[in-house]
Amino acid sequence: MEDKIGNEKYINETLRKNNLHAKKKFGQNFLTNERILDSIIDLSEVDKDTLVIEVGPGLGSLTERILKRAGFLVSYEIDPDLIPILNDNFKDYDNFKLINEDILNIDINEDIKKYQGNLSKVYMVSNLPYYITTPIIIGMLEKTDKIKRYVMMMQKEVALRLTGKPNTKDYAEISVAIKYRGDSKIILNVPRTAFIPSPNVDSSVIAIDLYESKRYFPKDEKLFFEITRIAFNQRRKTLLNNLSTKYKKEVILKMIKDLGYKDAIRAEELTIDDFIKISDYMGDNNA
To answer: What global pTM score does this model have?
Structure first.
């Protein structure tokens, strides 16, 4: 069956026929480039043994392609105006469940348990709403370990931060948080002209593959994430200055010396292993 959803003509006609428009409050930008849509589904590695979670299906351009590849698809759409259109578009598919909810409010583990059946893999494949990209990703990573692969379109600037490496301008707290859980990389760049309406920024698709088993073992995970967050609080400031907003300066100075770091070291120079060493030290010394 040929793809009927995703081209510019379809999007425009559907919006006009239903007296709808892209809603800024939901971060709606409809992807219309069919070549890019095909590339996303190819790169997702979805097959008939996969339960797919999709956030923000919009008018279903990516949804249709997922349905043809996946064992089952659960899509979460917050906009009630799009629900009748999506239900009508995909009424002939028996491997589809549409849920009119905010993804931030749902029990993802309960839904996975309900719809996974005997499928062996759970992936998330989505063109994410730009205004809540980071909360969605961090929320999913914190709520569940059942989703093993994430393939997500987002603002290019955010994609660069999520995949950032030490000693680059894109390296940030979120880079460390992602690296702690899995390997991430940009797999496709998407120009702003591929959407209706055209956003003010270019986009990228990233893939995050969670580790098969835990790779990093800080003594206190909560402290590890707190240290990382504070260390990146003001990028231009040194590690000493940032950590001094929460911890005793003399303890931080001793930590820097004992661990062999230079006095003026900054967060962007530190690897995930460095942050573990630092948080373990601070915990052991009751900082």
So the answer is: 0.91
